[in-house]
Design brief:
This protein is 30% helix and 28% strand. The chain is built from 10 helices and 11 strands.
Length: 261
């Protein structure tokens, strides 16, 4: 995937990674982290909506939500559309991404203004160690498994999420591309299946990610699977959403034969 740069809006380096934001000719504003496209204004909604609404509509009463990563604010924006959620904590190790998003990515960063949102600048694993059995839903919005995000794809991190979940809770994590990363996805799912009550892979279409596809890994603690929503968007909310529907929710778990194997 290549995008034509119209204007570089910001380029800098945080303590952890290179941050580039530019306006493109066809995909609007673009966030690039360490040389990899993180989001574009044109299609980010598909990923953000599925990362938030699949887990939240799979829970009967999600009140306390933890987001690990996601410094651009897009997942916060979507979680904040659920009025019954009482607490939204975003824990990101890289304050530089958050600052850049607030200044240059208002279409995702708008969620930071919600009064239920609390931001923690720290290691997510450390925060969860300090807050066990605290959350109904944990969403890990990570970049690819290189650099500071690499630990988010390892079994100990999933063990930490499990301990931080309440009974009946669930996690949703960025699950990589089924066409390129089965060598990462399958061992990870196998390694956590003995701990979590259910572990599933769902798929999302997004043009600017490799192969036009990204996955979600959903896992539950002391309850059943997430393939069918337990709650449904109001008509008002559904009218605001561009990608998520209850039908898309269920269809996202229908996988091709090579992935199921």
């Amino acid at each position: 995937m290549s995008l034509k740069v119209k204007e570089v809006v910001y380029h800098g380096r945080s303590e952890f990674q290179d941050i580039l934001i530019f306006d493109s000719t066809d995909y609007g504003r673009v966030l690039v982290l360490d040389g990899v496209i993180n989001l574009t204004e044109r299609d980010e909604f598909t990923y953000q909506e599925m990362m938030a609404h699949v887990p939240l509509f799979s829970h009967p009463n999600p009140e306390n939500v933890l987001i690990i990563g996601g410094g651009d604010g897009g997942v916060i924006r979507e979680v904040a559309k659920h009025p019954d959620v009482k607490q939204i904590i975003l824990c990101d190790i890289d304050e530089g991404v958050i600052d850049a998003a607030k200044k240059y990515l208002p279409f995702t960063a708008q969620g930071f203004a919600d009064p239920r949102v609390e931001v923690k600048i720290m290691d997510g694993a450390v925060f969860m160690e300090q807050n066990q059995q605290s959350f109904d839903v944990i969403i890990t919005d990570s970049s690819d498994p290189v650099g500071p995000a690499s630990v988010l794809f390892e079994t100990p991190f999933y063990d930490a999420m499990y301990k931080s979940l309440r009974h009946g809770g669930l996690i949703c994590t960025q699950g990589e591309c089924q066409f390129l990363h089965l060598d990462i996805i399958k061992p990870l799912i196998n390694s956590i299946s003995n701990k979590y009550s259910s572990v599933e892979y769902a798929t999302v279409s997004i043009p600017t990610y490799p192969c036009g596809q990204i996955g979600l890994i959903l896992a539950t603690k002391g309850r059943g699977a997430c393939k069918s929503p337990l709650r449904f968007p109001t008509d008002e909310l559904q009218h605001k959403l561009k990608y998520y529907t209850p039908e898309i929710h269920e269809a996202s778990f229908v996988l091709p034969a090579f992935t199921r194997r």
